[in-house]
Amino acid sequence: MIKQLFACIFTFALISTAAVSGPIRIKDLVEFDGVRGNDLIGYGLVVGLNGTGDGIRNAPFTEEIMSNILERLGVNITGEQFRPKNVAAVFVTANLPAFARAGGRIDVTVSAIGDAKSLLGGTLIMTPLNAADGQIYAVGQGTVIAGGVSATGDAGGVVQGVPTSGVIPSGAYIEREIDFDFGALAQIRLALRTPDFTTAERIERAINKMFGRGVAVMLDAGTVQLDIKATRQASAAHAISKIENILVEPQRKARVVVDQRSGTIVLGEDVRISRVAVSQGNLTLRIEEQPMVVQPNPFAAGESVVVPRTNASIQEEPGIGLAELSEGTSLSEVIAGLNALGVSPRDMIDILKSIKAAGALHAEFIVR
């Protein structure tokens, strides 16, 4: 019980230190309309593996792409039978940032799609990377840094991390730019990452206060529109540079987020609990099978018989009785009241669900 209480206190201590509120820059609260990256994808080949590549019989697409590459290089292998184990077919993915220019470099991620055991030490052969419009925007090539290691023997093996996936830092050159004239925009919308009417109004007020006139207007809980001409700046980029570092104190909804898989509990700063009494206990049902073999006497005619034996028991822990949680007026008081229950974080999740069902938890309850 002491260990459980310590785990619960430790979990909530992390939450309380992370819940300190304060002003935040506008650039950390919003996304600027049109300023976004684009996903790229390609299909390529990793070579130079130490016998950990695709089994060609199980991955015929690897043989096909390898044949195409060799033929483009002037090597005719039509009708030849080859079964190399040091190549692997991979998907190559990357993100083309906003305002990326031709000649720049971006990171790429390489992931095996066949039955390769590891990409450690492999080299990605020149791979075109396409966007959703089918155009080639970058070309990737380089040495793969795998995310793990594996070793196998005749009777077993060991795997650490994910050796079938890796990255190539700055592994692709940008060949084509996104056609987007940011300077021609007359208006820019600021999209709040967490829509909230109060936060949007505060952003509008802070921007107008800095310029001394009405240049921003709140359209809804998630959008603030900025009039570039009214800012009297040289360009849209100059206007954004003026407002992105303005400090605004956001208003957040009261939320409780729980992850049942890991037992993680996160409480927002504005979570409140009304006065409520809680009782919690565990019920354990145990069934054990202990079959017994009954044998006949040495000189008697008969056969050995297996007689089933079952032991069933029900054990109920005493629980905590009825514990009163007083009305919480601050996050620290809510944490102190929940810690007073002395239960593990996983049991705390069930308690919070029940408190919410009773109408005593005044927050949005999110289960992941």
TrEMBL record:
Q: Which UniProt keywords apply?
A: Bacterial flagellum, Cell projection, Cilium, Flagellum, Periplasm, Signal
Q: Where in the cell is it found?
A: Bacterial flagellum basal body
MF GO annotations = structural molecule activity
Using the record, list the residue span of the signal peptide; answer none if the entry has no such feature. Answer: 1-18
Q: Which residues form a coiled coil?
A: none
Q: Which GO biological process entries does UniProt record here?
A: bacterial-type flagellum-dependent cell motility
Q: What is its main location?
A: other
- Keyword Signal attributed: yes
Q: Specify the domain of life of the species encoding this protein.
A: Bacteria
- Listed GO cellular component terms? bacterial-type flagellum basal body, distal rod, P ring; outer membrane-bounded periplasmic space
Keyword Aminoacyl-tRNA synthetase listed: no
Q: What is the protein's known function?
A: Assembles around the rod to form the L-ring and probably protects the motor/basal body from shearing forces during rotation.
Q: What family does the Swiss-Prot or TrEMBL record give for this protein? A: Belongs to the FlgI family.
Q: Its quaternary structure?
A: The basal body constitutes a major portion of the flagellar organelle and consists of four rings (L,P,S, and M) mounted on a central rod.
The protein, known as = Flagellar P-ring protein
The gene it comes from is: flgI
